[in-house]
């Protein structure tokens, strides 16, 4: 247990906090720890977790992207036009189109960052506004309701009826979320590219001198984030049953908060899929718990802001202490020899 807290301090602490929250809400309300509420939490936050694992890869590589939610909106609208143009489509075509469009928008960020040598947050603020402005200009803010049946049909991977007649269901977005989480875990943990992303985020200059291709790292990081944005946007339409140009505007901050709370370091080189899941769960359970307790929604932003501050400060402190202990150990070994 001590090794777990030492190796993954943020993730371990967040797990304890989540356990206490779940225990407290279970005692305070009769509806929190019910199958209906749990399935609702998973359905409502599946898209956020898809986006979160995409953003995680960018943060590991030392970047930041706040344009992904707007990029997802652009993918929704362009994909709807493509599907109407070809007279329908299918889920297979839908995933290919959404992923391709998302990767394209992600590569726009990567190209601008690499070409202009400007920090990623500045570029993604610019593309955030550019994407959203272009989207609203061409759509004039109008929703799209006439969508292919395959895109709007409800697909459930789990259904159960309670004795009182209510249904508990998990929709397709949860299955897609699981696939995206596993794919991201495989990318950052089982591939050479994943190890290079960590090295590049931790020490860009050292990674460059070791032969890591900086341009390739930016392509992988922002392309992956863009792909997750596109897939998340595709699934959001299946949930909402319509394309709303400005519906996803602002959700990027909740996702960023969740990933940072899960232990991803803003300086790069650190972050895990497990921590990402825990961060999304923390944000989701906090919001759900406040609603069940009848507390003002304004308290949610205050709590999340305070939690981010604590997470960042404690993460930096732990990282500094770990560096000092490692340096001390190295000096002791040097003196011993």
Q: In what order do the strands lie side by side in the largest sheet?
A: 1-2
What does the radius of gyration come to?
Answer: 21 Å
Largest sheet: 2 strands, antiparallel
The helix/strand series, from N terminus to C terminus, equals HHHHHHHEEHHHHHHH
Shape field = globular
Helix content: over 70%
Please give a handful of descriptors for the protein shown.
337 residues, mainly alpha, two-stranded antiparallel sheet, 14 helices, 2 strands, globular
Structural account:
The protein is mainly alpha-helical and 337 residues long. 76% of the residues lie in helices and 3% in strands. A two-stranded antiparallel ribbon has the order 1-2. About 2% of the residues have low confidence.
Question: How is this structure best summarized?
Answer:
The chain is mostly helical and 337 residues long.
SSE blueprint and pairings:
Elements: H1 2-7, H2 9-28, H3 35-60, H4 68-86, H5 91-116, H6 120-139, H7 149-152, E1 156-161, E2 167-171, H8 172-190, H9 192-202, H10 204-209, H11 214-240, H12 251-261, H13 273-293, H14 298-336
Antiparallel strand pairs: 1-2
């Amino acid at each position: 247990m001590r090794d777990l807290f030492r190796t993954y301090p943020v993730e371990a602490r967040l797990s304890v906090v989540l356990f206490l929250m779940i225990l407290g809400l279970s005692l305070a309300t009769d509806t929190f720890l019910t199958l209906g509420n749990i399935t609702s939490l998973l359905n409502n936050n599946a898209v956020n977790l898809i986006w979160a694992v995409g953003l995680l890869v960018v943060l590991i590589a030392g970047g930041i992207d706040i344009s992904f939610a707007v990029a997802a909106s652009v993918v929704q609208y362009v994909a709807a036009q493509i599907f109407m143009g070809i007279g329908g489509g299918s889920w297979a075509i839908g995933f290919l189109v959404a992923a391709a469009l998302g990767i394209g928008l992600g590569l726009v960020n990567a190209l601008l960052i690499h070409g202009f040598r400007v920090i990623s947050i500045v570029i993604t603020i610019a593309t955030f506004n550019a994407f959203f402005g272009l989207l609203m200009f061409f759509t004039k803010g109008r929703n799209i309701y006439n969508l292919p049946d395959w895109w709007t049909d409800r697909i459930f991977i789990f259904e159960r009826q309670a004795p009182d007649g209510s249904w508990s269901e998990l929709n397709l977005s949860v299955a897609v979320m699981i696939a995206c989480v596993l794919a991201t875990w495989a990318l950052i943990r089982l591939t050479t590219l994943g190890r290079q992303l960590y090295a590049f985020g931790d020490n860009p200059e050292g990674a460059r001198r070791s032969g890591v291709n900086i341009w390739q790292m930016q392509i992988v990081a922002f392309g992956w984030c863009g792909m997750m944005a596109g897939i998340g946007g595709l699934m959001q339409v299946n949930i909402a049953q319509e394309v709303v140009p400005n519906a996803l505007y602002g959700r990027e901050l909740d996702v960023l908060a969740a990933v940072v709370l899960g232990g991803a370091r803003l300086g790069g080189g650190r972050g895990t899929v497990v921590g990402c899941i825990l961060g999304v769960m923390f944000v989701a359970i906090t919001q759900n718990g406040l609603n069940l307790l009848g507390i003002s929604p304004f308290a949610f932003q205050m709590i999340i802001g305070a939690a981010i501050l604590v997470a960042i400060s404690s993460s930096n402190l732990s990282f500094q202490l770990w560096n000092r202990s490692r340096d001390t150990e190295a000096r002791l070994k040097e003196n011993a020899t």
